[in-house]
């Protein structure tokens, strides 16, 4: 229901889907981690909702879409960070070995 409401909102001015392989994200615990960015485990949908006044002030353009895609692509972890995460076995994402089993940090 929520997805449908976003899709049909009269405030919707833009909608883009960013594949998980095309972006990463900033880890919420980045201040406690060695690595700031993580691989995204899922695709991300972006909805731009605007009032009529906002449409005039901040138009949604293909340039805006490209800027957002580039900014999200910049959030990829380095290959070294990806290797450390897999080695440490943090979390339950595909990048951590999957299977839903937390292996914990090796001692």
Task: Please describe the topology of this protein.
Blueprint: H1 2-8, E1 12-18, E2 24-26, E3 37-39, E4 44-49, H2 52-57, H3 62-73, H4 79-88
Antiparallel strand pairs: 1-4, 2-3
Order of helices and strands: HEEEEHHH
Largest sheet, order of strands side by side? 1-4
The number of domains is: 1
Gross morphology:
elongated
Computed CA radius of gyration, to the nearest angstrom? 18 Å
Number of helices: 4
Main sheet characteristics: 2 strands, antiparallel
Helical content, roughly? 25-40%
Query: Mean pLDDT, nearest integer?
Result: 81
The total of beta strands comes to 4
Beta-strand percentage range: 15-25%
What does this protein structure show overall?
Residues 96-107 have a biased composition (Gly residues). Residues 71-107 are annotated as: Disordered. By secondary structure, the protein is an alpha+beta fold. The chain has one domain. It is 33% helix and 18% strand.
What brief labels describe this structure?
107 residues, elongated, two-stranded antiparallel ribbon
């Amino acid at each position: 229901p929520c997805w449908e409401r976003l899709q049909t909102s009269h405030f919707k001015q833009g909608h883009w889907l960013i594949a998980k392989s095309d972006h990463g994200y900033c880890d919420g615990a980045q201040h406690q981690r060695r690595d700031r960015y993580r691989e995204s485990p899922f695709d991300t949908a972006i909805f731009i909702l605007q009032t009529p006044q906002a449409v005039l002030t901040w138009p949604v353009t293909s340039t805006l879409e490209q800027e957002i895609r580039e900014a999200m692509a910049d959030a990829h972890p380095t290959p070294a960070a990806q290797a450390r995460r897999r080695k440490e076995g943090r979390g339950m994402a595909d990048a951590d070995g999957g299977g839903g089993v937390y292996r914990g940090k090796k001692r």
